[in-house]
Sequence to fold (467 residues):
Amino acid sequence: MVTQKSPISHQNNSYKANLLSKAASNSLTDLIDNLVQEQIVNQELLLSLSFALRSFTNLNRFLELIPVLVTRLVGTEGSLLIPFQDDGSIWRDQLKITPIEKNQELYRKLILLEEGMKPGFGIQEQNILLLDRLVQRHFGFANVFATSIVSRGRQRGRLYAFDKNDIIFGSDAHRKHLQLVADLTGVAIENDVIFQVIRNHEKVDRQLSIGAEIQAQLLPDHCPTIEGVELAACCRPAFQLGGDYYDFMPTRSDLVGNAKASGRWAFVIGDVMGKGVPAGLLMTMLRGMLRAEVLSGLPPDSILHDLNQLALEDLTQSHRFVTLFYSDFDARSRKLRFANAAHNPPLLWSFQSKSITRLDAPGLLIGLQPDAQYGCGEIILQPGDVLLYYTDGVTEASGLSGERFDENRLIALLDQFARDGLGAQKILNKLFKRLDGFVGVDHQLEDDASMVVLKVNEELTLPELSQ
Fold:
């Protein structure tokens, strides 16, 4: 006997199947909606962290966000950030853990970890394992996930996620999120290191700028008016602070006006071996010593002898020496007396002979040995004569081909410009223009370069009266 299903029973089964299908569809839709919503939330969190990384000015506040963000992204009870300082030691001031109230014991252990305070701690793999075991023992070995914070190949810290329950990273999405946060944290720490270096450089630059301003004020801002001669001078430091020095000093401080202009003047040019801050400081010290010596009225050789005695101890301690050419000029007699402490001899172009000679005298470097003796020479400058004082930064300057500017080139240019009858300032300008062209417009001088040009005024020749 065949039993047939009633139409009502068949309809009920279809209705139940439809309900189950609809419920499954709704559950799937809800699940997808929840996943999409979770993805949106996670994306917003990561975008917020990226924005904070781009705009943060306080590393501490940025790092405070990291454990909070990890717990929301990974869905764990808490998170721990252990950053390392630039020397590899644990950065105790920047340890971050959430929730802090439940993990005071772990925080205290990390703060008091003696090994972690040693430079290079974070570089060694066994120390990373030590940290991992310390954290895992606190929470239970199955409930901790850790990853490294690395930037430019350097270990910058460890980032942990933990929970009382087992942490499940089934889809690897949480692992990727945690690693992404660790990577952004590494960038933030590295950026802060770079910012600190930049700030320190800015401080040094400000100090150098102040030092350069002071040094520039120590060099004459203009050439003095001296009867019968024209002067021009310029110093080009290779760095902000330089070791070149030149000066014009009256040998008597009580003279003023015309008496001062027609009196005796000291002309000096020198070079402290080296460049930058140490050379600039020593040059400043020598200037003060020399200015005091000039007022003694002693001849040039005695001036250099006394200066050597005064500066010897300071120069010996700094392991530096000074070349110096000292001369004094009597404006009325046009007599120039000079002594040389191994400096480049000035070049004298004679108006009468149209030839160049070097003004030199025997003498050792300032600061080389005690009781050094110096020779003294003298010459009467003639109308139209041109005298060029210079430092080795001029002749040693390198051109684009690697060739040196050298003394022969300088002599040839001086001869050319002097024969053209140019004044002291125009001669100086043209010499520096040729030097700049030789070195290259976009290239920096390797050493300080200074030049001083002295030209004796030419005598006026009155026209002959017709008979």
Summary: The radius of gyration is 40 Å. The first helix runs from residue 7 to 55. The chain has eleven helices and 14 strands. The chain has a mean pLDDT of 81.
